[in-house]
Amino acid sequence: MLKEAIATGLTVEEAKENACKELGVETYDDRIDFEIIEMQSKKVLGLFGGHPAKVKVTIKQSAAQAAEDFLRNIINCMELNDITLTTKEEDNVITIDIEGEEVGFIIGRRGETLDALQYLACLAANRVDPAYKRVVINTGDYREKREKTLESLGRRLAIKAAKTGKKSTLEPMNPYERRIIHTSVQKVNGATSWSEGENMNRHVVIGPDGKRENYNRGRGGKRSYNGNRGRSSKPKQNAAAPDPDRKPLNEGEGMGLYGRIDK
Fold first, then answer.
1. Could you count the other beta carbons within 10 Å of the beta carbon of residue 178?
2. What does the pLDDT look like over 104-135, one tens digit per residue?
3. Band of pLDDT at residue 235, cut at 50, 70 and 90
4. Is residue 1's pLDDT more than 80?
5. Which end of the chain is more exposed for a tag (fewer CB within 10 A), N or C?
């Protein structure tokens, strides 16, 4: 699709109309800018000199179009065929859904390629619009499946930490995925989570909550016994109800994958 055109006419308005026709838009379209390159001039004595007006009309690119164009260029460079993009924008969120037989190359290992493309598309979108736009790139229901997998992982490791008192270290994740883990862990009483590492190596650690009551244990890791031989004392388990004030760590709060990049 053409994004600019230069046309001439007997008047500036006629030149503007001619340029808009070339672009397939109307003169009243709020997406266009026009620049007068040269004003018309009349012939001297109706015989000598004179020239028509010349105008350049440019279609202003939207943030959604900028993100989609960037993604298309990358896909073309990857030489992937039969890939379809569907773009929509709602409430400052640009959603691009990708379909095709070769989407596996776009997703990459554990979604790393998809995440990187989403981050770069967000940069491209926010270069053309002063109002911040969030970009979400998905293929099929990959994002939804990934979120459920992370929720299950966080809960499973949280239960393990509460029972065994041992911590687990997860692989590096982006802020949005770390927040999913933190939120899942917060629902398990007796476990907590925190983030460690810097930049691309930042990851989540899940461990026992320091406030939980530990089991009474004897030497060698065996449970201790009371005065009645053969009768073991019951371990004191954490019977406290979940704290309603416990909140997930603020990683990617209120945003999808990769929020504002200027923070």
1. 24
2. 888 888 788 888 899 999 999 998 877 888 99
3. very low
4. no
5. C
Banded pLDDT at 256 (limits 50, 70, 90): very low
- Residue identified by tokens 């503007």 is 16
